[in-house]
Amino acid sequence: MELVNKTEVSEFFLKGFSGYPALERLLFPLCSAMYLVTLLGNTAIVAVSVLDIRLHTPMYFFLGNLSILDICYTSTFVPLMLVHLVSAQKTISFIGCAIQMCLSLSTGSTECLLLAIMAYDRYLAICRPLRYPVLMSHRLCLLLAGAAWVLCLFKSVTETVIAMRLPFCGHYVVSHFTCEILAVLKLACGDTSVSEVFLLAGAILLLPVPLALICLSYTLILATILRVPSAAGRRKAFSTCSAHLAVVLLFYGTVIFMYMKPKSKEARISDEVFTVLYAVVTPMLNPVIYSLRNKEVKEAARKVWDRRQTSA
């Protein structure tokens, strides 16, 4: 499908925090530091998962995918946002806006599905331990992760094409720091009902449905853990999924707060600041949570570091 801009709009102005220069000066070093930590932390998780053969398991395969997703998601908007924070030129081309919109939608949607897949993996590992190697085979891991990436990319391309084919009638000022699809749709002067239906269907499939599956998985996991006779066994079983549960609560908690709270007619700067923080902070905290809550990751990282020091 080809993007067709039916108006004279060739670029968009990302308003962001342009009316608050002091806030821009504060956000630039803060977001730069958090983005750097996000890149380093998630890259370290991927490297450790690949280099340590003991971590070649479904759990760490999906964790590596989650880390790659976090890197891709933040990289779709943070570099451009940082440039705009220190520059008076805050424009993005029409095609660049469409690409950014599509990639942000795709990576964010994929994370919703991946967290549900990881919950299912933990359910099989704890509730079906004897059959776990057979049920969660390497082929199934590839199939589940690949399906999540491909389906969400297809969904996001469809939503982006439908949105960007709308007429904008010369409106080009986006009240956001990125080409967020809802902010761009506000500029359209045509019928947005088709786009809104697609977005609603996607939101239902990617928020309540995966969250319900996650809740069901952890309900069954909790019931299984409580039946473990020894306290040590219960702690060990819970420790294998506590990090994932923390990431789920952090991710879905912030998303639900942002998109389920009452909307004001006018965009508020506090909403945009919170959006920046959760969009950057959540990917930054994921590797921290997994590193602190998982002894295997810490031991693998230490051994990889020791091998590098020895070889050096």
From TrEMBL:
Gene3D superfamilies recorded: Rhodopsin 7-helix transmembrane proteins
Gene Ontology CC annotations of this record: plasma membrane
Presence of keyword Transferase: no
Protein location: Cell membrane
Membrane-spanning parts: 26-48, 60-86, 92-120, 140-158, 197-225, 237-260, 272-292
Membrane topology: Multi-pass membrane protein
Residues covered by the G-protein coupled receptors family 1 profile domain: 41-290
Chief localization: membrane
Keywords: Cell membrane, G-protein coupled receptor, Membrane, Olfaction, Receptor, Sensory transduction, Transducer, Transmembrane, Transmembrane helix
GO molecular function terms attached to this record: G protein-coupled receptor activity; olfactory receptor activity
Classification via CDD domains: 7tmA_OR13-like
Annotated Pfam families: 7tm_4
Domain of life: Eukaryota
Function noted in UniProt: Putative odorant or sperm cell receptor.
Family affiliation: Belongs to the G-protein coupled receptor 1 family.
Protein name: Olfactory receptor
Originating organism: Pteropus vampyrus (Large flying fox)
